[in-house]
Amino acid sequence: MSGPASLRRQVAYARGCAALACLLAAGLTGACSAPGQLPPETRAISATEIPGPTATETVAPSATATPTPTLHPLTIESMRQRSYPGSEITIEESLAPGANYSRAIASYLSDGLRINALLTIPFGSPPPSGWPVIIFNHGYISPDEYQTTERYIAYVDNLARNSYIVFRPDYRGHADSEGVAGGAYGSPDYVIDVLNAAASMRLFPAADPDRIGMWGHSMGGYITLRSMVIDPRLRAGVIWAGVVASYPDLLTRWRRTPAAPGTPTGTPSLRGWRGGLASVYGSLDENPAFYDSISANSFLTEISGPVQLHHGTADSSVPYEFSEILYEQLQQAGVESELYLYEGADHNLSAPFSTAMLRTIEFFNRYLKGG
To answer: What is the spatial order of strands in the sheet that 207-217 belongs to?
Structure first.
C-alpha cells in the first residue's frame, strides 16, 4: 500500500529507529534525555466449544468432512492456539529520564494494530543476557481519559529503579493506541495485546528473552493470570487487588452495580459482557463447562511460574476473597505462591504501598534475577 499514510508510517519508523538507538545509548551512558517534566504522581482509581453448523442429510459420499467446531475466542484453549509474534519495538518519543533509567513512549504491533507503551531501560551496561523485564499491566482506567505517562508513576518508578526494563502497554483503544477498547472480561483483546508485548520484548536488544515476568493491578491482574496460563515462557507474576476469580465467581460474587430491590444474593447481573455470554451460551447453571473453559483458574496446574498476591481487606472495587480463593487454588495445584492481605487497605494499597512494593521487588529478584 502506498500513499500519504504509508509515507507517514515510513517516516515514523525511521524516526523511531533513530530514537531507539539514542535510548539504548542512554541506557549505557545516561546521556540521552528529552525536555519536559515528569507528570505529578497520581494513583489509579481504579469455551466450551460453539457447535459448528448442523450437518444436513445429503447423498454426498461418506468422505465429506464434518464441520470443525469453533472455540469461543475467550477459551484458554483458543487463546493457546493463537500466535503472538509481537514485533520490533519503535521509539515514538523520548521522555525525561528517571533516577537511574531512561524513559520513552514506544510502540509495537498486536493483531496488526500499533499499540503504544511506556518503556524504561536501566542506565549502565546490561547483564550478558540482557536486562530482566517486567510487563506492567495497568488496571481499568476509562480509555477516553487514559494517558501513557499518567497514573502508576510510583509503581513503575520503584520497579525501574531496581534494574528492570519496565514495559507498560496501553492496550488497544487507549490513548494513542490503534483499535477499539472493547473491555477485558468479554473479549480476549487486551490479553492478546499483552502477550504480543511480551513477544516484542523477546525481540528487544537490551532485554533478556528468558527473564520476563508480569505485574498486574485490578483488571491487569486478570490479564496477568490469563497470560501466565497461556504463555509458558513467563517466569513469574505479581498481582495487586486482582480480578482473579473464575468466571463462575465473577458472575455470582462480583456485583459492580447495585442490585434491584428484591434480587436474591448471588444472582448475576446480565448487563454488558455477562449478558453477552449468557445470551449465546446460557446461564452458569445451564452451561457450567463453558464458563470453566474461559476461566484461567481451571488451568492452574499449567501456569508458567510462581505467583505473589496482594489485596487490601477494605477494597471496595474487587473483593479480597478473590485473592484468597486463588491462593487456595494455586496451593492445591502445587504452584509456588504467596498471599499478603493488608488490614483496612484500599484498592490501590495506598497505606501499605511501601511494604507491598518491597515484597514485590524481592519476589521478582528471586525469580527473575535468581537472588
So the answer is: 90-95, 101-110, 113-122, 165-169, 131-137, 207-217, 237-240, 307-312, 337-342
The span from the first CA to the last CA of the chain, in angstroms, equals 50
Residue type at 332? Q
Tell me the average pLDDT across 279-298. Answer: 93
> Can you tell me which residue has the cell 497470560?
227
pLDDT tens for 146-201 read: 999 999 999 999 999 999 999 999 999 999 999 999 999 999 999 999 999 999 99
Q: How far lies 359's CA from each of 61, 142, 236, 355, in Å?
A: 65, 29, 14, 6
Over pLDDT 70: what percentage of the chain?
77
What is the reported pTM?
0.81
Using DSSP, state whether 262 is helix, strand or coil: coil
Cα–Cα distance for residue pair 170/29, rounded to 1 Å? 28
Q: How far apart are CA 329 and CA 205, in angstroms?
A: 37
Instruction: Give all domains of the chain, ordered by start, each with its CATH number.
Output: 8-34+76-246+295-369 (3.40.50.1820)
Query: How are beta strands 307-312 and 237-240 bridged, if at all?
Result: parallel
As beta bridge partners, residue 101 has 122
Q: How far apart are CA 134 and CA 351, in angstroms?
A: 24
